[in-house]
């Protein structure tokens, strides 16, 4: 597929998505009208759910594609009663099956490519594709380990098409001076961009302040985390409430180890950014409710609504009025 074909495909995808949005809006309006006239409601007709394996079969996509679609927010899932693997409402499957171009359109939205396929898609050399990825122009969505246990990044074909439409000048000619300087310094934004997208998608799935704090904490190593969250009970609570990917957890020990390493911020400015975000989320979480202590009824305490009465500084004895950088304990990794 040439660059022109990529651009045409991307334009067609945008048109299809626009039509899909209109279709969904009309469907929601019809549903609301039916309910207003005494039609079925969620309380009178409980929704039927199916397991992920069956859902992927009914949607005509592979299990890995299904899991990626869930990660991207394209397929809504619900928690199973009493825990267990998430499930999919049959009405969600019906909605997706009514999308224009089903099932090919859904499969295309989760199609991933490696460096060689991505370069062919954009009609550029693999070396140029790698430079664009290292410079942060395109971001990987997932990865796997090859037989040498090296990380192989994968990219959404749909996002590459969008990049080609947005930045055609970067696909030909000389590399811009600023980008060339960045690459010559050894910069590689692939892992950082993967972390950024992963964290943002996990944050989109929860409004619980402590869970959001735990997501931000997942990007810092234990030493960095302890400098920001100095209370050991709070750190233990963050481990308990940390949201995990709904599907697609690495299966092998090597993959889990690679995931653990890739999740940690490794550049000074990224570390500082994560510490700032963690501090802000932590303030919101402490205002909402305190972390459980030994002897507390953790289940009841964790379910409390937003705190009322005395402010956190009075209730917990925490000093106030500190500057943000002082609270971060940030000295800069070049400062000794």
Can you characterise this structure?
By secondary structure, this protein is mainly α. It has helices spanning about 5-35, 50-60, 65-70, 90-95, 105-110, 115-120, 125-135, 155-165, 175-185, 190-205, 210-215, 220-230, 230-240, 255-260, 270-290, 300, 310-315, 325-330; strands at about 50, 90, 110-115, 140-145, 150-155. The longest helix is centred in the first third of the chain and has 34 residues, at about 5-35. Mean pLDDT is about 80; it is low at about 15-45, about 300-320 and about 330-335.
Sum this structure up briefly.
This protein has 336 residues and is mainly α.
**Shape verdict:** globular
- The overall average pLDDT, rounded, is 80
Run of helices and strands: HEHHEHHEHHEEHHHHHHHHHHH
Rg from C-alpha positions? Answer: 23 Å
Largest sheet geometry: 3 strands, antiparallel
Strand content range: under 5%
Distance between the termini: 52 Å
- SS field, number of helical segments: 18
Q: Segments where pLDDT lies below 50 for 5+ residues? A: 17-44, 298-321, 332-336
Strand line-up across the major sheet: 3-5-4
Number of strands: 5
Give the helix/strand class.
Answer: mainly alpha
Counting copies of identical and different chains, the oligomeric state is single chain
State the helical fraction.
55-70%
């Amino acid at each position: 597929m040439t660059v022109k074909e990529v651009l045409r495909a991307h334009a067609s995808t945008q048109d299809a998505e626009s039509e899909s949005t209109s279709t969904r809006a009309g469907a929601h309006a019809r549903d609301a009208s039916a309910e207003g006239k005494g039609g079925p409601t969620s309380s009178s007709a409980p929704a039927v759910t199916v397991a992920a394996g069956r859902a992927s079969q009914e949607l005509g996509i592979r299990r890995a594609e299904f899991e990626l679609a869930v990660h991207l927010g394209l397929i809504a899932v619900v928690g199973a009663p009493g825990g267990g693997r998430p499930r999919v409402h049959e009405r969600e499957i019906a909605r997706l099956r009514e999308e224009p171009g089903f099932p090919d359109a859904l499969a295309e939205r989760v199609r991933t490519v490696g460096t060689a396929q991505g370069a062919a898609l954009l009609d550029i050399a693999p070396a140029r594709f790698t430079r664009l990825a290292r410079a942060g122009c395109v971001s990987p969505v997932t990865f796997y380990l090859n037989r040498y246990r090296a990380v192989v990044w994968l990219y959404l074909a749909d996002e590459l098409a969008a990049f080609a439409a947005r930045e055609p000048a970067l696909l030909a000619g000389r590399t811009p001076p600023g980008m060339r300087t960045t690459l010559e310094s050894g910069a590689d934004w692939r892992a950082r961009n993967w972390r950024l997208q992963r964290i943002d998608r996990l944050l989109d799935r929860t409004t619980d302040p402590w869970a959001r704090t735990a997501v931000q904490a997942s990007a810092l190593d234990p030493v960095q985390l302890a400098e920001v969250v100095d209370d050991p009970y709070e750190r233990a609570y963050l481990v308990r409430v940390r949201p995990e990917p709904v599907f697609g957890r690495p299966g092998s020990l090597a993959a889990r180890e690679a995931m653990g390493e890739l999740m940690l911020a490794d550049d000074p400015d990224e570390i500082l950014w994560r510490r700032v975000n963690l501090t802000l989320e932590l303030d919101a979480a402490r205002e909402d409710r305190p972390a459980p202590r030994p002897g507390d009824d953790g289940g009841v305490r964790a379910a409390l609504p937003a705190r009322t009465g005395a402010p956190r500084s009075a209730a917990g004895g925490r000093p106030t009025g500190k500057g943000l950088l002082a609270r971060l304990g940030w000295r800069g990794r070049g400062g000794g």
